[in-house]
Amino acid sequence: MYVTHYYISTFYQRLGGNHLKLIKLCQHIFLTLLIALSSTNLSAQDMVQATLDDTTFHWFSSEGQDIRIYYQQDSFAHRHRQMLLRSANSAVKEASGYLGIAEFEKILRVFYLNSRTEMERVVGRPCTGFANWDADAVFVVVNPDWRSFEKHEITHVLTMLSWGSPAPSSSWMIEGIAIASDGWCREYSVDQIASHYLSQDMLPQLTDLFDDIRALGEVRGGMIAASLIGFIRHTYGPAALRRIWLNGTDDLSDILSVELDQLESTWHDYLRRSVTTGVPVDLDTIMESGCG
Ligand SMILES: [Zn+2]
Question: I need a labelling partner for 277 at 20 to 30 A (CA). Which of 12, 48, 91, 251 fits?
């Protein structure tokens, strides 16, 4: 089995069962939902090979320093392959830097698909992004109406391969760290959206975020988690994120040497200081059309 980014609820249920190694991530609107691809009996490597062998697709590829990208003839990705290759290469370097990983020696493979329909053919779900870390591969949709989230998916691969699976109490970080690494939803930064929630008195208690992120809703939970992760990284560095990831959020206060209420108030102050106020965030459009 693997996982796809799809519905966050399934994802956390699986995490609660400690099945993380058996799943991959599939991105739906913007966020991810983890599901077990039990409908296929393919291994991670077999899934990539099956995609390459599928004659429905006509793959071309280009290789950069850390990455190989695949695209189909006459597709949007084919026409923009040079830009996408640079973008994917940069995504590996930037995501590595975000996580504090000095060097990632594998060549990651990025498959650009035209549509959710094609994604469903490949991974069994009509998501817009899919991270398959056991095969060093990600699959992303890109077309004139949807920007690809390769950096988000690559961050999933790098965290899982470099850090390993998170402690169960840190499962809220999985999506948050990928969203934070990517940094954007439509034209808004993650912190702009979190600041909007703060102004609406819609930021939850940290314990509520940690205990049940899905109860906050897919977009709200993901954006708030990402903003908090960005603040922790900004203040304490990526090594602190890694420790929380591995040791569990139960140890967060000890790792950061701060009480939760103090962390919460300094994060809120950080948002008030660093985000330009008065930027109207169109949440309705995000909820309706996603972050692409
Ligand atoms: Zn994700």
Answer: 91
CA 4 to centroid of ligand 1, rounded, Å: 9
Compute, in angstroms, the gap from residue 129 CA to the centroid of ligand 1: 8
Whole-angstrom CA distances from 216 to 181, 220, 225, 282 are 21, 6, 10, 18
CA of 206 to the centre of ligand 1 (A): 21
pTM of the model: 0.88
236 CA distance to ligand 1 centroid (A)? 23
The dihedrals phi and psi of 33, each to the nearest 5 degrees, come to: -135, 135
Q: 25 C-alpha vs ligand 1 centroid, how far in Å?
A: 6
Tens place of pLDDT per residue across the chain (292 aa): 233 443 333 333 333 333 333 345 565 444 444 443 434 556 777 889 999 999 999 999 999 988 999 999 999 999 999 999 999 999 999 999 999 998 778 899 999 999 999 998 998 888 889 999 989 999 999 999 999 999 999 999 999 999 999 999 999 999 999 999 999 999 999 999 999 999 999 999 999 999 999 899 888 999 999 999 999 999 999 999 999 999 999 999 999 999 999 999 999 999 999 887 677 899 989 888 888 8
Ligand 1 is an ion; its neighbours by CB within 5 Å are 5, 25, 32, 178
Find all residues with CB under 8 Å of 220, minimum gap 6, and list them. Answer: 197, 202
